[in-house]
Amino acid sequence: MAHTDIGFEVMQNFVEKLEDIASVEQKAKLEGRTISMILVPKK
């Protein structure tokens, strides 16, 4: 919980690496102790 900013950076790096094959449907959000994000494949 002390370094949630690092978790969000990791998620952003993940999105950048997959930007040619996937797009973000729901941006990263903190739910309790879990950071979640929804990605969908590009058509």
Description:
This protein is an alpha+beta fold and 43 residues long. It has 1 helix and 2 strands. It has a two-stranded antiparallel sheet. The protein is elongated and about 35 Å long.
User: What series of H and E elements makes up the topology?
Assistant: HEE
- Rg: 11 Å
Give the overall shape, derived from the CA principal axes: elongated
User: What proportion of the residues is helical, as a percent range?
Assistant: 25-40%
The average pLDDT is 95
Strand elements, count: 2
Spatial gap, N to C terminus: 36 Å
Query: Count the helices. How many?
Result: 1
- Low-confidence parts: none
By helix and strand content, what is the structural category? alpha+beta
Strand order of the largest sheet: 1-2
Estimate the strand proportion: 35-45%
* Major sheet description: 2 strands, antiparallel
Could you name the key traits of this structure?
single chain, 43 residues, alpha+beta, two-stranded antiparallel sheet, 1 helix, elongated
